User: Which sequence fits this backbone?
């Protein structure tokens, strides 16, 4: 039996700005029902890779395919119907309700200048319900917690009805309770059949939710099973500090900063 086609794939992809590559030779395959965690040091190119995969930034070489279609042949709305982006939670500038925020995810499905219809509101409400925050629909999006805002941004991505969801550090600046909530929802989305790509600076999150990890470093991008790639040696080399991966009595892997540099 042949392997299923990945929902999102990059082959020999080169990324960068003004035709100057910052990373090249990137091969990536994201399948339905899976979470992929992207790790790499600050400034290595994770956000640049996301923007290139989403078609927001032109690639410098190689190919990206979304649901088997070459990204270079897709219009913006076509790409947006296949891939949704969840930026880091930001407070925003304008006062609107959480429902209005989620309705923005319907833009790619509306004709030019068309207003959302009742069906769009239903889809937006269903997205809020999936994330367990339907009760926030009429709340001011500026007056909810950081964790609730992150869930609302994920709901906006769901309302876009794309099967590929790309999230930029979705748990950054969240407290432990909200981190657990958001990570649980990410896992649940994958279990419902989405392909989820998440960047993080916390390798433990990969142990908690990922089916595979992608490591972006100066030599390129390596993809593989979480436990194979996230070893003490590999993480120490990646971040330039002594990092240890240990296993708790209950079998969970934890990541420990073994020394404070300079001491
Ligand atoms: N608009 C831009 N034009 C030119 N160079 C840029 C632009 N945006 C980012 N860069 C550079 O590209 C490199 C990769 O940046 P990017 O934001 O993709 O890294 P990152 O891995 O997401 O970092 P972090 O983990 O700190 O968020 C950096 O050297 C950055 O300075």
Assistant:
């Amino acid at each position: 039996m042949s392997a299923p086609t990945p929902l999102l794939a990059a082959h020999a992809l080169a990324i960068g700005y003004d035709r100057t590559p910052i990373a090249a030779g990137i091969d990536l395959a994201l399948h339905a029902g899976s979470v992929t965690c992207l790790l790499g040091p600050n400034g290595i190119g994770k956000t640049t890779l996301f923007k290139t995969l989403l078609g927001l930034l032109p690639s410098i070489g190689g190919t990206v395919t979304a649901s088997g279609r070459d990204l270079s042949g897709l219009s913006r709305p076509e790409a947006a119907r296949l891939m949704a982006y969840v930026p880091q939670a930001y407070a925003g500038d304008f006062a609107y309700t959480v429902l209005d925020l989620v309705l923005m995810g319907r833009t790619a499905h509306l004709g030019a200048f068309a207003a959302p219809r009742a069906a769009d509101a239903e889809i937006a409400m269903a997205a809020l319900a999936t994330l367990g925050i339907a009760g926030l629909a009429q709340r001011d999006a500026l007056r909810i917690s950081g964790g609730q805002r992150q869930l609302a941004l994920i709901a906006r991505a769901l309302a876009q009805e794309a099967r590929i969801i790309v999230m930029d550090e979705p748990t950054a600046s969240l407290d432990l309770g909200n981190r657990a909530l958001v990570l649980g929802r990410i896992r649940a989305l994958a279990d419902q059949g989405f392909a989820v790509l998440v960047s993080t600076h916390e390798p433990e999150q990969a142990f908690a939710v990922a089916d595979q990890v992608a490591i972006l470093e100066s030599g390129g991008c390596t993809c593989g099973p979480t436990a194979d790639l996230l070893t003490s040696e590999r993480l120490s080399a990646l971040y330039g500090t002594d990092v240890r991966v240990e296993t708790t009595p209950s079998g969970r892997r934890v990541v420990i900063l073994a020394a404070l540099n300079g001491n």
Observations:
- The radius of gyration is 19 Å.
- The chain has a mean pLDDT of 90.
- The CA atoms of residues 183 and 205 lie 8 Å apart.
